[in-house]
């Protein structure tokens, strides 16, 4: 279970390590050279950072007793590390989507609707990544909001597990999570899409929501996952 110690204060050496890892993953030997410390000192500090779930180590190669390890930020800690380094960002990347329009629902209007709802409660949406099908009305959606990137796959890609789409989606979320906060819309497309986004939400400690209805049949944001460090903020939003 992820259990970050909020009272943890990194040393100057640990801050240097986190700053380098915030840019990209490093092999352990290279990381030590860039920080300018002995291997034993690096190992000691990595052990502390790993214990508080800020980093993770992965063995790339094993030659006898010698292991070549890659060091990276823990996937759930990137936003915490940003705040720790004084580099917190207010901008969000929205991961949403829409399928084919029909007589009952103009699917292409979903990005506009969720952006509008999110902005009303204080979210600055910098990027919009839309998961779509070849039949989606992208031109119609672009009339209301600027879509940064589209992931276009046949509808069956959203219905089957372990498809190219879900592999690509994970990579895209990781990419945007490096420079912005990410928020996930579990509303569109298939039930499997909803489930997969919820799994990613929990894995990376990313907030996710569903666009539902209130008692007056008005659209409203229903949070499906709220990271532990944001629960107080989200509780305030629910009372608005």
Topology summary:
Elements: H1 12-23, E1 26-27, H2 28-35, H3 39-51, E2 55-63, E3 66-73, H4 78-84, E4 91-98, H5 110-120, E5 124-132, H6 138-142, E6 149-152, H7 164-177, E7 181-185, H8 191-204, E8 208-213, E9 219-225, H9 231-238
Parallel strand pairs: 4-5, 4-7, 5-6, 7-8
Antiparallel strand pairs: 1-3, 2-3, 8-9
Short overview:
The protein has 240 residues and is of the alpha/beta class. It contains nine helices and nine strands. The strands form two sheets. Strands 6-5-4-7-8-9 form a six-stranded mixed β-sheet, with helices on both faces.
What is the CATH superfamily classification of the largest domain? Hypothetical protein VC1899 like domain (Restriction endonuclease-like)
Total count of helical runs of at least 4 residues: 9
Number of strands: 9
Shape: elongated
Structural class: alpha/beta
Task: Summarize the structure in words.
With 240 residues, the protein is an alpha/beta fold. The protein folds into two domains: 12-76, Arc Repressor Mutant, subunit A (Orthogonal Bundle); 91-238, Hypothetical protein VC1899 like domain (Restriction endonuclease-like) (Rossmann fold, 3-Layer(aba) Sandwich). Helix content is 38%, strand content 24%. It is built from nine helices and nine strands. The protein has a six-stranded mixed sheet, sandwiched between helices. The protein has a three-stranded antiparallel sheet with strand order 1-3-2. α8 links the parallel β7 and β8 (208-213). The radius of gyration is 20 Å and the shape is elongated. The two termini are 32 Å apart. Residues 235-240 have low confidence and may be disordered.
């Amino acid at each position: 279970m992820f259990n970050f110690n909020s009272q943890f204060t990194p040393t100057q050496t640990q801050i240097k390590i986190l700053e380098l890892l915030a840019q990209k993953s490093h092999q352990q030997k290279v990381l030590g050279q860039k920080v300018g410390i002995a291997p034993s000192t690096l190992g000691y500090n990595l052990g502390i950072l790993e214990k508080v779930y800020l980093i993770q180590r992965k063995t790339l190669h094993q030659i006898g007793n010698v292991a070549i390890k890659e060091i990276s930020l823990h996937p759930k800690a990137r936003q915490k590390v940003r705040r720790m380094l004084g580099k917190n960002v207010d901008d969000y990347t929205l991961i949403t989507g829409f399928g084919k329009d029909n007589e009952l629902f103009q699917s292409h209007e979903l990005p506009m609707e969720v952006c509008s709802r999110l902005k009303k409660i204080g979210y600055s949406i910098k990027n919009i990544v839309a998961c779509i099908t070849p039949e989606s009305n992208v031109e119609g959606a672009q009339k209301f909001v600027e879509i940064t990137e589209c992931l276009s796959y046949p509808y069956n890609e959203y219905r089957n597990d372990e498809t190219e789409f879900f592999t690509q989606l994970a990579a895209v979320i990781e990419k945007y999570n490096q420079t912005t906060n990410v928020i996930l819309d579990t509303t569109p497309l298939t039930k499997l899409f909803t489930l997969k986004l919820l799994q990613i939400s929990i894995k990376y400690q990313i907030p996710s929501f569903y666009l539902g209805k209130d008692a007056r049949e008005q659209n409203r944001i229903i949070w499906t996952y709220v990271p532990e460090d944001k629960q107080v903020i989200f509780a305030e939003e629910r009372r608005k």
